[in-house]
Amino acid sequence: MRVARIACPRCWQELHDAGRNLRCDGCREVYPVARGIPSLLVGPPATWEELIRTLDWEMQRHPWVVLKMSVAACTWLPRARQRLLRSLPIAAGDLVLDHCTGRGGNLPGLRRAVGASGGIAAFDLSGYGLAHALRTVERAGWQNVRLQQADAHRLPYLSKTFDAVIHFGAWNQLASPERALEEILRVTRPGGWVVLLDEGIEPKLRRTLWGSLLQWANPLFGCDPPIALLQAYGMRPEVRWVVRGMFYEVRFRTPV
Ligand SMILES: C[S@@+](CC[C@H](N)C(=O)[O-])C[C@H]1O[C@@H](n2cnc3c(N)ncnc32)[C@H](O)[C@@H]1O
Ligand SMILES: [Zn+2]
Fold this sequence. Notes:
By secondary structure, this protein is of the alpha/beta class. It has helices at 45-69, 71-86, 107-114, 127-140, 177-187, 209-217, 227-232, and strands spanning 15-18, 21-24, 30-34, 37-40, 95-99, 119-124, 145-150, 162-168, 188-199, 238-242, 247-253. It has a single domain (37-253), classed as Rossmann fold.
């Protein structure tokens, strides 16, 4: 079993268990832990409260948003997720980060891929999402799946920790994709895999009735994959469109 070492999101020194908290030996910051989930946010709680409330609210209505898109989506989207997870470049024994895990929808598929010998760290800002994910982890009894409350712009992990970083579904809305990418590149080991998937219709479908309907239901479907950004950071991304051309999937390996 592998477990990601947690680092202080202020100074990236490793954190140590201090009873009900985690403590940083570098900057002396103390981070609270509730029901086994450390809250690893930088700055006073008031800075986060409103953003977390908004994300909690979005996470609560997420199943209804999917339902609104179409009743059929409720049956084929979960199946599509399983297919996508099976196609990921992850092997048994890998240590994987589920980036912006939300309600933990990726966790069963990722746990199947890494097995008992690997490990998963999964973080999100939404306490609601994490509580849901925690129920899945506790019911299954997975010791090697650990959850953290954290911000994608300041990841609480040591550098070069993960064999793969998997992100489904928040890229188009991040305040600074540049900063989030820098953090992903920091925590991925050299030669590790990064997979980013989010709403974005395949260009040839954009002007079809289906494409127009999707963009009307959710303008985020008009987003493009972050190819230029990745190339600006020296990455060589491969892009493909998945789930009937509704989502882009970008994957690349970090340089060795
Ligand atoms: C559409 S959901 C996708 C969740 C999950 N990956 C899935 O596939 O079901 C997007 C998630 O990103 C989270 N999120 C948005 N901005 C974030 C940030 N800056 N740091 C951490 N999580 C964030 C939201 O709370 C939400 O849970
Ligand atoms: Zn610190």
